[in-house]
Amino acid sequence: MRLQRMLGHATTLLSEHPDNIVVIGCGAGVTAGAVSIDPRLKHETIAEIERLVHGRSTSTSGPELQRRRNKKVECTSTTRGISS
Fold it and tell me: Which CATH superfamily is domain 2-77 in?
């Protein structure tokens, strides 16, 4: 989990103006949560690429938790997923 938090914080700390950030693939929401706490952030979009994660997220985990915790967060999901 340290790596996921570090990635989230690095995203906002290395940018001069972290106004709008997109997190691709939310999973448990650790990286997205680390991004969302930056006070300079105005809007965060979580784009979940796996329908199962978005469909199974609850008020206690994943994208839904991040959206409930912070009004700056918007959650979206792909309709077809990514094919290889």
Answer: Vaccinia Virus protein VP39 (3.40.50.150)
